[in-house]
Write a structure and sequence with these properties.
The structure holds 3 protein chains of 3 kinds.
Chain A lengths: L1 H7 L1 H4 L3 H19 L5 H14 L2 H26 L8 H12 L3 H35 L3 H17 L5 H15 L2 E2 L6 E2 L13 H19 L5 H9 L12 H7 L1 H16 L5 H14 L12 H25 L5 H12 L6 H6 L1 H31 L6 H20 L2 H19 L4 H24 L6 H4 L1 H19 L9
Antiparallel strand pairs in A: 1-2
Helix pairs in contact in A: 1-18, 3-4, 3-5, 3-18, 4-5, 4-16, 5-6, 5-7, 5-15, 5-16, 5-18, 6-7, 6-15, 7-13, 7-15, 7-18, 8-9, 8-21, 8-23, 9-21, 10-19, 10-20, 10-21, 13-14, 13-15, 14-15, 19-20
Chain B lengths: L1 H25 L6 E5 L6 H17 L3 E5 L6 H8 L7 E5 L1 H4 L1 H5 L10 E17 L7 H10 L5 E4 L5 H13 L4 E4 L4 H9 L5 E5 L4 H5 L3 E6 L14 H4 L6 E9 L4 H16 L1 H10 L3 E4 L1 H24 L6
Parallel strand pairs in B: 1-2, 1-3, 5-6, 5-7
Antiparallel strand pairs in B: 3-9, 4-7, 4-8, 4-9, 4-10
Chain C lengths: L2 H6 L1 H21 L15 H23 L11 H20 L1 H15 L7 H22 L12
Helix pairs in contact in C: 2-3, 4-5, 5-6
Classes of the chains: A mainly alpha, B alpha/beta, C mainly alpha.
Keywords (chain A): Membrane, Transmembrane, Transmembrane helix
Pfam family, one (chain A): TctA
Protein name (chain A): Tricarboxylate transporter
């Protein structure tokens, strides 16, 4: 507990104008990047990296932390208002939030998303400060077979969460996994599925897929329904005369979601965060799926479930706290953002490990304080100040709005890799996602299959190589057995309830 | 007459301008320089390149910014360097994979080392064998003996299959007559660290610098370094030369520019980086993070690189012939 | 509804299309060669082949299900606009480097505005917005973030 107390000292550092300034600047930049389709908070930090070398290490870390937290939150803004999540971790928020937006309740949806992010982020930051050593050791208990089963669990959940369309879920997820195999093999330096071209050897980048699947496909969907959306325009217009009060969710709604949902989702997010490699989208999704499983109103999901928004946003912001654990304890980054923060530490001559945590707490504690303050104070403040402007995005004439989105999304996919080919891939995936949506296949499932597929394969092949290819290893390893059991329990609980009438089994 | 004068005037002006711009060209650099890093931001290579470059830009008086272009075991980033304009405003940092793995595997047909001019080598980091401090292996000979008693049982964590570290363990096995169970953890040293800490493996093969934080707090122990000179930062770790094993292999960072970059530009870059290399700031930092500085200037680096690549190619070919791997 | 009509429904054609893709994928997967040791189960072709078979199974289930369904009312508008956007985007991408960011984006935005019927009747506003959008993102990417956008008529 000593370490916790020493970390509390970090809040003091925030009292300096310089540090405070960097935190707020980082938060605003992170919010902008996280919300814009085509940009991510990882890109923001990477672009600001040179600046972090010229300033002191404390403001630099504080800024990275607030960018991280802001980026996770702000994905929900565009997800709700224009159905294009700014980051994959807000995919579920797009489904539920946009449904509410179309019913004229956009401000309310944004409020719930902010509340979830706020609660989840704060809890994640507190868990980080209080339990980092224990959490770090716990994370080490899970080894490769366990990781395989965990990823398998996530994928199975994705497929069955919409139990009316399991076969389509399998198609979508498998499609994502297959697409991810294009490029260099996960373990060996041989190209796969490059069909003799040089371009495909570099594989399919995540950014173009995300941009294509969300931004471009939404563009195409809107274009197809151009003349039909008069009605929804009217509904949106209703939501435009909003007062700042409308962003604050009424207490009755919060109670309906239930404090337990927020806390449970935050724990899920933190737990997934402490495992290196698992990311915000997995955290958001697992929390969402579990909230749906235990919900008293599962039929709301897909049509504007506030509970779903709360769970997803709470988990993805809490994951931020968790991701710092393996990075600070062992020098093992949990996700791309913490990998860059690790670089900042190293450049400044700091080495991760117990020594850093015990003896140089004064250097890293402000970073934790920044996470906490960004979550608890800056998120609601941002919504309160800028909320009405967020909603008014949709009052921009549609032609102008979607043209602008097209430009920023495509240029964004160029900027990520300086590759024309990836821009083209973004277009291709946009078309693919368009058809997937038209025929009711889950784009979220495809994307999660794409993101998690390589991990699944790597963990599978490595686990099998321990024992000469004997799959019994998945049952003899405690961690793997635990997750497999969890998968079966989950599947049973979800499938037990009566499926929709015209279900395809 | 008037026309001739005018023509003469124009010609003179043109010549004057041309020579002025010639002078202007000699005033390299005039704008920002892009440094391609073919690995991810925050990683080991990225850190070293950025640190050195931030110091180097002070002597060149322009901004030098690092750009991470990942993919294809560094093939994507260096491939782009090869097709960049040779005007000195784009350079890049090559690592072992760029020089050996990618050409040998022939992953990208348009990838050709002749398209590059090497500027200087800045670090050369031998690989090493580290073990869990809780394990019974106190010296490398303990490990070799244990491996002989249990062939194919002892797990060794390496990085990508077919990469440098894999090659190292394969050669080690040949030289010592041992057989380990080789387990691959792609993605740099971080997953290897995780594997040792979670007790999934007891032995890992990579550079000491990659494991510096764990070596410092005593969680792992270095058994041997694949080098012939003792590493000053880790005086307790013997070299393979000392231990009688004829194996030296390691990674390195070499700066390069597209092949037709003018000589004055290359010289300017070389001296900027040499100044940065020699600076106290860099030398102290490098000792702190456990990386081994090792300078080799423009005159010598190309010969060294060719030699190193050739010898590694023939070693890999030998392994192919021995049936250990296929091409 | 006779069988041919059922087959031509897009909801059946789509999985059929995926089936063809999967077959190409499987054929390619079988030609993947592992580089190290006789790894059969743990090799680089295991996962792709497994995924291909799972995909086949799922696609068959889906196709049969869609086939059996009664005709649904056509939803959504015509595909003309989306198609035009795809074509315009393709051209934009192809010309992005050769022409440079500014000319290519100006042209792209003009095309999009026309497809979306934006300010078609007010040429002054039309031109203003085209320039505004192009300039805004130029300022954002090249100006604020120092990203290198392809120069005018530059190539690389």
């Amino acid at each position: 507990m000593e370490t916790f107390v020493s970390f509390l000292g970090g809040f003091e550092a925030l009292l300096s104008w310089e540090v405070l300034g960097f935190m707020i600047a980082g938060f605003l930049i992170g919010t902008f990047f996280g919300a814009m389709p085509g940009l991510t908070s990882v890109l923001a930090i990477a672009l600001l990296l040179p600046i972090t070398y010229t300033i002191d290490v404390v403001p630099a870390l504080v800024m990275c932390a607030s960018i991280f937290m802001a980026g996770m939150y702000s994905g929900s803004i565009t997800a709700t208002t224009i159905n294009i999540p700014g980051a994959p971790s807000s995919m579920m928020t797009a489904v539920e939030g946009n449904a509410l937006m179309l019913k004229g309740q956009g401000a309310n949806a944004l409020g719930h998303a902010a509340l979830g992010s706020m609660i989840g982020g704060s809890i994640g930051a507190l868990l980080l400060m209080a339990f980092m050593p224990i959490a770090g050791e716990l994370a080490l208990l899970i080894r490769t077979p366990g990781k395989f089963s965990l990823v398998l669990f996530a994928l199975v959940v994705i497929i069955i969460v919409d139990k009316g369309a399991i076969a389509k879920g399998i198609v979508a997820t498998t499609l994502g996994i297959m697409l991810a195999t294009v490029g260099i093999d996960v373990l060996q330096p041989i190209p796969r599925f490059e069909f003799g071209t040089e371009l495909l050897v570099e594989g399919i980048g995540l950014m173009p897929v995300v941009i294509g699947a969300f931004a471009v496909s939404e563009l195409l969907v809107q274009a197809q329904n151009w003349n039909l959306s008069l009605e929804s325009t009217l509904k949106r217009a209703k939501g435009l005369k909003i007062r700042r009060r409308d962003f604050i969710p009424p207490w009755s709604e919060i109670r309906e979601v239930g404090l337990f949902t927020y806390i449970k989702s935050a724990f899920i997010g933190y737990a997934i965060g402490i495992l290196p490699g698992a990311g915000g989208s997995m955290a958001a999704f697992v929390a969402y799926a579990d909230a749906k499983r235990s919900s008293k109103k599962p039929e709301e999901y897909g049509n504007g479930s506030r509970e779903g928004i709360a769970a997803a946003e709470s988990a993805n912001n809490s994951m931020c706290g968790g991701a710092f654990v393996p990075m600070l304890m062992f020098g093992i980054p949990g996700d791309p953002t913490t990998a860059i923060v690790l670089g900042v530490l190293v450049i400044n001559g700091l080495q991760p490990g117990p020594r850093l945590i015990e003896q140089q707490a004064d250097l890293i504690a402000p970073m934790f304080a920044s996470l906490f303050v960004s979550a608890l104070i800056l998120i609601p403040l941002t919504l309160f100040l800028f909320g009405p402007y967020f909603i008014r995005i949709v009052s921009i004439s549609r032609g102008l709005l979607y043209s602008a989105i097209a430009v920023v999304a495509l240029v964004g996919s160029y900027v990520a890799t300086y590759s024309i080919f990836q821009m083209f891939l973004a277009l291709l995936f946009g078309v693919l996602a368009f058809f997937l949506r038209k025929h009711n296949y889950s784009v979220v499932a495809m994307l999660l299959g794409f993101i998690l597929g390589p991990d699944l394969e790597q963990y599978l092949r490595r686990s099998l190589s321990f024992n000469d290819g004997n799959p019994i290893v998945f049952l003899t390893s405690m961690d793997s057995l635990a997750f497999l059991a969890l998968t079966i329990v989950f599947a049973y609980l979800i499938l037990r309830k009566k499926p929709k009438l015209d279900a395809i089994p | 007459m008037y026309k001739n004068n005018k023509t003469l005037l124009t010609l003179t002006a043109a010549v004057a301008l041309a020579s002025l711009s010639g002078v202007a060209l000699a005033d390299y650099p005039e704008r920002d320089i892009r440094v391609i890093v073919p690995w991810g931001a925050g990683g080991g290579t990225d850190g070293i390149v950025r640190k050195l470059t931030t110091i180097a830009e002070e002597s060149l008086d322009v901004s030098m910014y690092a750009e991470n272009i990942e993919g294809g075991v560094s093939a994507t980033g260096i491939g782009q360097l090869m097709s960049s304009r040779p005007d000195g405003y784009t350079i890049g940092a090559l690592t072992y994979d760029s020089l050996v793995t990618v050409p040998w595997q022939a992953m990208l047909p348009s990838y050709d080392m002749d398209k590059l001019k090497l500027i200087a080598r800045v670090t050369s980091e031998p690989d090493a064998i580290v073990v869990d401090a809780d394990s019974d292996y106190q010296t490398i000979h303990d490990l070799i003996e244990a491996a002989k008693e249990n062939p194919g049982e002892i797990r060794v964590a390496i990085q990508n299959l077919g990469g440098r570290v894999h090659l190292a363990i394969l050669q080690f096995q040949e030289l010592t007559g041992t057989e380990f169970r080789i387990v691959s953890y792609p993605g740099g040293a971080a997953p290897q660290k995780e594997a040792i800490l979670s007790d999934e493996v007891d032995v890992a093969l990579t550079s000491l610098g990659d494991f510096s934080n764990l070596l410092e707090d005593g969680t792992v122990r270095g058994l041997v370094e694949f080098s012939d000179t003792q590493n000053p930062t880790y005086p307790d770790v013997p070299t393979t030369a000392e231990e009688g094993i004829d194996l030296q292999i390691g990674s390195f960072i070499v700066f390069a520019a597209p092949a037709d970059t003018p000589e004055e530009t290359i010289n300017a870059l070389e001296s900027a980086y040499k100044t940065a290399y020699d600076s106290d700031e860099f030398q102290e930092w490098v000792a702190n993070v456990g990386v081994t500085p090792n300078w080799l200037g423009t005159d010598e680096v190309t010969a060294w690189a060719d030699e190193t690549a050739e010898s590694l190619f023939s070693e890999m070919d030998a392994l192919v012939e021995a049936g250990v791997m296929s091409k | 509804m006779n069988n041919v009509e059922r087959f031509r429904r897009s909801s059946v054609l789509f999985p059929a299309f995926l089936l063809i893709l999967t077959t190409i994928y499987l054929a390619e997967a079988l030609s993947i060669r592992s580089q190290f040791g006789g790894d059969t189960l743990v090799g680089p072709r295991f996962m792709p082949i497994l995924m291909a078979f799972i995909m086949y199974a799922a696609l068959i289930v889906v196709t049969v299900g869609e086939w059996r369904k009664e005709a649904e009312a056509a939803t959504g508008g015509s595909l003309l606009r989306p198609l035009l956007i795809v074509v315009a985007t393709g051209i934009y991408i192809a010309l992005f480097r050769p022409l440079g960011y500014v000319p290519a984006t100006l042209g792209f935005v003009v095309a999009l505005f026309l497809i979306f019927d934006f300010e078609k009747h007010r040429p002054a506003f039309f031109i203003f917005y085209v320039i505004a959008v192009t300039a805004l993102f130029y300022g954002l990417f090249a100006g604020i973030f120092g990203v290198r956008l392809p120069p005018v008529l530059g190539g690389f």
